[in-house]
Design a protein that fits this description.
Elements (H helix, E strand, L loop, with lengths): L1 E8 L4 H20 L3 E8 L11 E9 L3 H9 L2 H4 L3 E9 L5
Antiparallel strand pairs: 1-3, 1-4, 2-3
């Protein structure tokens, strides 16, 4: 089943985000390489693809996991959460309708 993983950044976490980014991306690339990733990306804090020092408010991942518990375990092990970039992570089952 698909799950939405929504992480919310702590205010002022841009520097920590950039430091943890390589490890964060490795985990997402592993999902992609396994054919389980639908989409992933950050949520800019301002209306721009490059928010500069405004940074990001969070990240969104849609991926396939065997269960909600496994999706939650994966999300809670993410470097953005373990290093304090995210203040919280929510995981929701997702039913894809389009496209």
């Amino acid at each position: 089943m698909l799950y939405v993983i929504l992480g919310q950044d702590r205010p002022g976490s841009l520097e920590n985000r950039m430091a943890a980014r390589p490890e964060h991306l490795l985990r997402i690339e592993a999902l992609r390489d396994a054919g389980r990733l639908v989409l992933a990306g950050p949520l800019p804090a301002v209306d721009s693809p490059d928010p500069g020092p405004a940074g990001f408010t969070g990240s969104l991942i849609v991926a396939e996991f065997p269960s909600l518990a496994e999706a939650e375990a994966w999300a809670h092990a993410d470097p953005y959460l373990t290093t304090g970039v995210f203040s919280q992570v929510r995981v929701h089952p997702f039913k894809r309708v389009l496209p």
